[in-house]
Amino acid sequence: MELTKILFVCHGNICRSPMAEFVMKDIAAKRGVSDMFLIESAATSGEELGNPVYPPARRKLAEHGIDCAGKTARRLRASDYEEYDLLIGMDSANIRNMTRICGGDPQGKIRLLSDFAGRPGEEISDPWYTGDFETCWMDVLAGCEGLMDEILGRRAQGVFVV
Known about the structure:
about 160 residues, globular
């Protein structure tokens, strides 16, 4: 079985994108489909490289029984565009930076997470600035659930990626 490879991306890779990475891994595990996915996350900036998940984000995941130990921030590379099936950003600035870093989006792989939550074009607010990790959690969870539903629905129809 071919893996669906998903890369979640935000500005620093210490709040939103690692939350999405570990929420999506948790959803896959609970649905018994972990072996169908490779799920990771990255940053568009270099300012947090090597840093662990931001403590309030780590605590929010832990509240829901999700462990993100060992995750450190890494930067998006142009080669990631070919390696992953989907590159999912959190806001319009992420999308612009992802498209720039990847040299465009000829295959339509770069998407906004909220698009999968039935809220096309909406941004997932950065809790680094807002301090609102609960809203971020809810938005990330809704996006990841919707993304999983769409991927599994398409796989059931014989379509490999979204």
